Amino acid sequence: MSIAAHLKRSAVLGLGISMLVTLVLGTWLFSTEESNFRVQQRQRFAVMHANALALAVANTSIEETGKRVSDIQKLDPRIESAIIVAGVQLVASTRTEDAAPRQLRREEKPLFDLSNEIRTARETNRGEQVVRKKTIKIEEQTPGHIVVTVPYLADGQFAGILQMKFNTAGPDVENPAAESPTAVKSREPDSYLLPSVFFLAALLVGSLLTLHKERKFDLSKLVALAVFLAIALSYQQQRLARFERTMTRADQAIAADYLAAAEQYDRLGYLAMPRDKSAVNLWDTDHYQRPLGLIAADGSILSEHQTAYFAQRSGFLKRLLAAIDLLGAAILLMFIYGYAARAFAALKEHADAYTYVAPAMIGMLVLVFFPFAYGITLSFTDTTLFNESLPFQDRLTGWANFKAILGDFNLYEHTAEGIIWNYQNFYWTLLVTIAWTISNVTIGVSVGFLLAMALNTEGLRGKAIYRVLLILPWAIPTYITALIWRGMFHPQFGVINQVLQMFGMHPVAWFDGVFSSFLTGVATNGWLSFPFMMVVILGALQSIPRDMYEAAEVEGASRWQRLRFITLPLLRPTLIPAIVLSVVWTFNMFNIIFLVSNGEPGGANEILITKAYKIAFENYQYAYAAAYSTVIFIILLVYGAFQTRITRATESF
Amino acid sequence: MKRLRIIFAAGMLFVAGVFGAAQAAELVVWHAYRGAEKTAFEKVAKLYETENASKGIKVTTLAIPYDAYADKISASVPRGKGPDVFIYAQDRLGGWIESGKTVEPIDFYIDDATRNQFLPNMLDAMTYKGTVYGLPLNYKSITLIYNKALVKTPPKTSTELVKLAKSLTNTASGRYGLAYWYTNFYFHAALMNAFGGRVFDKNGKLVLDSPETVASIKQMMKWYKQDGILPTEPSETLVSSMFNEGKAAMIFNGPWFIGEISPSVNYGLAVLPVIDEAGKKPMRPWLTIEGAYVSASSKQKELAYDFAKFLTSEEAGLILALEGRQLHTNAAIYKDKRVAGDPVLNAFHNQLSSAEAMPNLAEMTMMWSPATTAMNKIVKGNATPEAALKEASNAIQESINALRKGH
């Protein structure tokens, strides 16, 4: 097969697959968004009617309330039933089997709890002066069957709940004109037709393209990309326009429905708000009972609010579409530059090898990559303990967490008493972490090196005993060691201060000063980390051939020269990986900081990982902590890449 | 073919058998008890089974290691798994309720007789924003523990306390009249409450830097600096080792410490003193109250509630108190001779008349770390009580605002 033919195939495949991915994802996105929107419109309609009835019965007697509830229910066939619950009493009900008013039955506990929940939500929003709890609850177990619960007020006070059941499954709420199912169906095909046409077009263009692998700036590659983008964008624009039309129609439908209902309420004398353009429409609210402001009280559509709302809605879609286009373009480039073909060939050639690693890969996927991806996704939200049950889309905030972490330069402030450092700042913590890592690794390596040199002395008696003793700190669980050291640093009863006092010195309040508290951690970790370095270095020392030293001695090299030109260069290949590892361990050495100084004083000695822990489990800001961890990961990634280059350079000494 | 059918039939029988057996309801209960507490708890569960033998209820108790317990609840229950009933102290309650789908409200089930059977303050800890979410099981608070060899009659007022403690303090030999973990806000709360200070007001607003709290800290500083009756850098281990070595004559500590007292120390328990400086108001320590909660994912909530109710009954209470050494919440058991005659149970019961439930708001966890920092700064003289509390309040408020975001 000639190269040209091969490349034509890759153009067809590339355009075909990237187009398919883009169109499928795009269609999926629009159909989810449109069905979400339909659900929201249905619920908006239901909320409107529930609010209307709640306003109508707010300040009436019990008998009048019952009458109004049943009157309104009869007006609209879509309202299946309405009940009012106050405490353990069922105040009013339109269900024939209920003889309201009566006590709630045992199995009606959820109604009682719901009433309490909504009361608490109202009180919380008022008390904290922040609107964060929904005061309207909606349930839609099967599409079209909506249960809406709104607060029921009596004399301006919360008295209970009003619950309405709707059946909007039959006629289309958003478009009362097109009620027949056939009308809805007739709009459907183009959502499949259009992508298929585009897809075929892409295949056709691909078969006409001839790519050249060797030439980097081949015009036909550019054409392929341009064709891809043109098709993808035109399709997406067309769908966006259609979505906006749907939104406009829906608003008109709701406005019409509102007008009809308001007229009926007015006729019955139940309308509790003025119907002029300037009045606030209290019926059409969000789930926090804040007026949406899209439809005025006289039923006219407030276009400027509507435009802003549409812009916000399609803005979100556009960002997702851009991401999909990028993905498609990346796939296309992979094909036309031959990466895909090579990957596929490798997969085919080494099929056995890939089969063997597959179980491990699956394990990694579940245990490592999934939590990892989850953490990174979480870092783009504003998830906290209080809002974790909200849908993902409502929690999405983009880069806000990263901006808050990295963009906060409030590191210190000048006062009359000098500079006061802000220990809560990210850069302070980063600085402490770096200082912590460098000092610990330095201590670990140098103490380990000295001890290894000492143990490597020829003819040393009791070498085995020393070695065991020196490895002991490593063998004892860190938890115990850390707590022992913490005890030793106790200002009054700790052994270190006792010794200081024995020599006539003043006791030191170790955990009070930023530097002394830092030292406590370094001392503990130094104690824990030198055995590892010692073992590594001792092993490397013993593998250095003796004759090299002998030769050097014959040549008249001094002790220093032998160390400088034989020992150190030969230690390097072992030492550098050990240091790389130890830097990463120390950077994330949670136990020692948490257990010994616990970041005292005032969080000054916190390292990044303990800080992230505290943000997540003391402050419950899960997303912020996830962003913090992501930043830690990126720092270590950059360090790792940098270190690998150095290591590679040292390998060829 | 025929064989297959037989196997199929046998399989169906087996399945039917399994489901038939499952007809007898099984209640799964999680707790974190060990030792005597665990044995007593399991005995109560067995008792419930025998009393309800006619209904065929089986109670399965499962002890979960304490460190993993709360996270296990948070992870499993909202996803429809986990126990029917679980037992935990009130400090996590607010968080569980705010994140939802974890704890079932039980206001609807709870009747007046059950409400009235509890000691005062107990149901408060289980009530979050006006709704009851659990039945209180047992409580813990600090009280005055003294060394009988050094203290003949325990002090009733702060003036007596200081006078007595001063006579027992000898800094040179490391002897102190009084020792408690005063830099830990949990222990300090007793003094704060005496002065009428609060962490959160009844609307959930942070009021940590109120003048009352400042006054309480000044009182503590007076004991530490001016009277010199308290050791420096207190901690849990320091207080316990000092008491066991006879170096601390009086300490403020809770029931968890009783088991740690060395047999050589002859100890006595008394109610925390009245603070003369706070207008003769008694010290009011915080109560940590363990409750039995009905899981929101339970399929048999009413039965689960019934079991929780049984745990709080007099019958169960006597077993849990006498064998499990728990301070049970049922008021009736303290009339029992064996309980009333028990010096430890009786002493903590006496302390209860001046004590209050620790707030169960989720925001409480954000308080500890800044409050500890503030206490350390004050004790070391690095900041005035006003400035340190102001700073702590600002830090806590910032964390709270990050949590209570609007939509």
**Residue ranges of chain B: pLDDT <50 for 5 or more in a row?**
17-22
User: What's the number of helices of chain B?
Assistant: 16
Q: Which stretches of chain A are low in confidence, meaning pLDDT under 50 for 5 or more residues running?
A: 173-188
Write down the oligomeric state.
heterodimer
Mean pLDDT of chain B: 91
Portion in beta strands of chain B:
15-25%
Number of beta-strand segments of chain A: 8
Strand order of the largest sheet of chain A: 3-2-1-6-5-4
Biggest pleated sheet of chain B: 6 strands, mixed
Question: SSE order of chain A, as H and E?
Answer: HHEEEHEEEHHHHHHHHEEHHHHHHHHHH
Keywords:
heterodimer, A: 653 residues, alpha+beta, 6-stranded antiparallel beta sheet, 21 helices, 7% strand, B: 407 residues, alpha/beta, 4-stranded mixed beta sheet, 16 helices
Helices and strands, with pairings:
The complex is a heterodimer of chains A (653) and B (407).
Chain A: H1 3-56, H2 62-75, E1 79-86, E2 89-93, E3 102-103, H3 109-128, E4 137-140, E5 145-154, E6 157-167, H4 181-187, H5 190-208, H6 219-268, H7 303-336, H8 339-349, H9 351-378, H10 392-395, H11 400-406, E7 412-415, E8 418-421, H12 426-455, H13 463-475, H14 478-488, H15 495-502, H16 514-542, H17 546-555, H18 559-587, H19 590-597, H20 608-617, H21 622-651
Antiparallel strand pairs in A: 1-2, 1-6, 2-3, 4-5, 5-6, 7-8
Chain B: H1 2-22, E1 26-31, H2 35-51, E2 58-63, H3 66-76, E3 85-89, H4 93-99, H5 112-116, H6 122-125, E4 127-128, E5 131-132, E6 134-140, E7 143-147, H7 158-168, E8 176-179, H8 185-194, H9 211-226, H10 236-244, E9 248-253, E10 267-270, E11 274-275, E12 281-282, E13 286-294, H11 301-311, H12 314-322, H13 337-340, H14 343-351, E14 356-357, H15 364-379, H16 385-403
Parallel strand pairs in B: 1-2, 1-3, 8-9, 13-14
Antiparallel strand pairs in B: 3-13, 4-5, 6-13, 7-9, 7-10, 11-12
